[in-house]
Amino acid sequence: MTPRAVIFMSNALAAIGISHLLESHFSVAPHIASSADEVSIAMQDGTDYIVTDAATYVTHLSLLLPHGRHTIVFSDSTALTTSGVTVIATSRGERHIVECLNTILSPKPIHSHKASMLSSREVDVLRLVASGLINKEIATRLNISINTVLTHRKNITAKLGIKSVSGLTFYAMMHGIISPE
User: Fold this and answer.
1) Domain 4-105 sits in CATH 1.10.8.80
2) Element (H, E) at 171
3) Is the pTM of this model over 0.90?
4) Fold match, 4-105 / 113-174
């Protein structure tokens, strides 16, 4: 699904330029909002990103602050991240802007370094634990002994630092080992 971005800026020409930049360099569906009400509606409809300028951000802080890490603020200052809001320095030019947007908008890898530390058999056991199976059912399904299941679970817990089944389930969902459905 294509991410959606609402562009809410005090300068209409800058908003058009950012919209064109997003369309030409990224798979993002931009929409230019002309009022705070339009932004509110877009946020309720599940907009992925709010793109704004520093003046508009400060003026509409109470509206934009809850969107946090999904807010991109263009400013003349140097690039930084503050309170989960990404600030991109416009003074550094188009190439810098595109590089910063690429970092923000590029899909992140599904598996983390910790997940890659798990053996394929440990991933199999984690998948079944996260699916709600008990040790005996896992042993039967994988055709291994219960002691082997317990050893794999101990190793998974040690490698990931997660002890609860709910924590392992959440981890498995977040890293694409099981689907969230």
Assistant:
1) no
2) helix 165-174
3) no
4) no
How far apart, in whole angstroms, are the C-alpha atoms of residue 49 and residue 131? 32
Side-chain half-sphere of 44: how many Cα atoms within 13 Å?
6
Q: Where are the domains of the chain?
A: 4-105, 113-174
**160, two tokens:** 């990931």
- DSSP secondary structure letter of residue 110: S
Residues contacting residue 135 through CB under 8 Å, at least 6 positions apart? 146, 149, 150, 153
Instruction: Going from the first residue of the chain to its last (181 residues), give the mean pLDDT of each consecutive group of 10, the final group possibly shorter.
Output: 86 90 84 90 84 88 76 74 72 83 67 65 91 92 94 92 86 77 56
Instruction: Tell me phi and psi for residue 51, to 5 degrees.
Output: -115, 125
Return the CATH architecture of domain 113-174. Answer: Orthogonal Bundle (1.10)
Q: Helices 146-160 and 135-142 sit at what angle, rounded to 10 degrees?
A: 110
CA 103-106-108 angle, 5° bins:
100
For residues 155 and 142, give the distance between their C-alpha atoms in angstroms, rounded to a whole number: 17
Under DSSP, the state recorded for 178 is S
